[in-house]
Predict the 3D structure of the following.
Amino acid sequence: MEIEEPEPPPPRQPKEPPKIRRLHDSVVNRIAAGEVIQRPVSAVKELVENSLDARSTAINVAVKDGGLKLIQVSDDGHGIRYEDLPILCERHTTSKLSTFEDLQSIQSMGFRGEALASMTYVAHVTVTTITEGQLHGYRVSYRDGVMEHEPKACAAVKGTQIMVENLFYNMVARRKTLQNSADDYSKIVDLLSRFAIHHIGLSFSCRKHGAARADVHRVATSSRLDAIKSVYGVSVAHNLLKVEARDDDPSSSIFEMNGFISNSSYSAKKTTMVLFINDRIVECTALKRAMEVVYAATLPKASKPFIYMAITLPPEHVDVNVHPTKREVSLLSQEVIIGKIQSVVESKLRNSNEARTFQEQTVEPSASCPIIASPMVTSKDRHYNPSSSRPKSQKVPVQKMVRTDSLDPAGRLHAYLQAKPLTNLENSNSLTAVRSSIRQRRNPKETADLSSIQELVDEIDSKCHSGLLDIVRHCTYVGMADDVYALLQHNTNLYLANVVNLSKELMYQQVLRRFAHFNGIKLSDPAPLPELITLALKEEDLDPECSENDDLKKKIAELNTNLLKQKAELLDEYFCVHVDEDSNLCWLPVILDQYTPDMDRLPEFVLCLGNDVDWEDEKNCLQGISAALGNFYAMHTPLLPNPSGDGLQFYKRSKHLSASDDGGNDNKTEDEIDHELLSEAQMAWSQREWSIQHVLFPSLRLFLKPPASMAANGTFVQVASLEKLYKIFERC
Ligand code: ADP
Ligand code: MG
């Protein structure tokens, strides 16, 4: 058969691969600069933080054209030494950090020495500064990281003034998009307002260049409420409640929080959340969501809150070096901390409203009954709203008293159990361990707007069962009743809840919520996909010793490996499941902080990706991968049987006693315990129990939207109603 000559390629297409060139430094720096300085407000934030680091007491900002024409920040801080001016705007020059170890305890706002340098690559920067005891100051302009001329002596007032002109003059596209959006000045005003209510001992102002009146003007004060009043107005300040929370138990979390939150009379369309962690202005979407949830569930009229919170943690518990603009930080035990703050805010809101229109949810056995194991869940049940029942009663009838309180761990079954070895967990608590195993991936892509993901998240919301949601949110974890069921108390009812099902669903939902924004866990040894798949196929086999199908297994492993390699980019970008060139699995996502899945289930997961995911349809595909991850990360029972019950048998092996030992009787055997295996099993089970109490339940409370199907499939089983028991005992 003759093969037709292929058509010659079009003439312009080069035959050889294109040559790789090294980018010019100025281009590299400009790209990096665009990352740090994303818009005018990010430049203002960096400059103000520098002024704060310079121990200023007054910071004044002037802005022209939303910051594109001019940003000028003047402070009265310690100034910059003449000798430092030549390298001031070079990349990675900083006075705040010298060794890598310093990073762990960094207390200043800056440390990467990138901000000023970045600005000089995308704008014209002029610095005027004077240090204490000098007769005159110096002025010098910078471009692309270097001085444009020798510093010129000039008259100057105490401190430093930095002028940033024509921002993004050399980035046409960025400038165009910014010119079209007129709201940068308001973003800058908003930012300054936030700084002004946190650093109350300093005075701040922000004005449009040339305007007589400042849009933010706050003089130093000693009262936070006064500061909030002068920046956000009386209507906000009059409707605030003070909140405080703290924890200093190293096994859960260490933090202190002080803040103000709006009460039920405050009303706004948008949430204002001013958050400082260790004096650093940051955003924390999870905390913000958690607060909105509390307000929506607690206050009768759906109003968005105003929240100011300052959280302090040991510096080594905060990883500041995770985001190019340092806007996001990553915290040790984030979920536990959020859970604690959520409870404090919730009880504050409830208490403050006793005298008002506020209604508290009370025990309503009839409302919680249909939840349990009844396939007839009507849509009415699903919309049952626990907060719309009866007014709060001051005195709790004795039969409604509950023994444990969800904030007080005393009284948990756990406390009665013998302490088990926890050495591994204690070690893993240190940030160094966390940091070496978890790497925050910089610059996640903005992909959460994929409509199929949005649809999947919406489905979670629409399927949520409000009765179960109430149980999950407000239950007390009593302890594990057996290997799979946890005992929970909710008001006067006791429930058994299947932790495998709950954790599987939670992980699935979190994968969708964290989609494309995962931190990563690096596997200490990259795992070769073909081997993982073969292992999984063998596990599935009824007769693993039979080598008949070995070729077939090899073929399946090869096909699946190729498939996953083709999908590597998608898996990595959206799910942080990273497969390298040599078909090794190297990274997995962090779905819940402080929790890594049981690696014994890795082969099953990889096989499931290859076999069970529909790679053709976008939505099915993303759902399939999320479900596979959910199943993998679920808190299954460890593969080794639980040694604390009948499982102990498993660790006994029969030892034949030799004839000489027992004087001639051949058949005698004696049980001996395999201590190594036993201690491995004890470790696995106690780790799991720790994770269930300290990671799973706090996270369930915060994030799980239990689907209605859980009401009927045995995930929750009501075991007793204390009220009914009380009645029975009363008759005795
Ligand atoms: P970083 O803040 O990460 O150290 P920057 O590029 O923001 O890096 O600043 C570089 C250095 O310039 C700082 O470490 C500091 O020593 C000095 N500096 C910048 N702004 C000021 C200021 N307003 N007052 C005094 N020193 C400043
Ligand atoms: Mg800085």
Observations:
- The chain has a mean pLDDT of 77.
- Residues 46, 49-50, 110, 115 surround magnesium ion (ligand 2) (CB under 6 Å).
- The first strand starts at residue 58 and ends at 64.
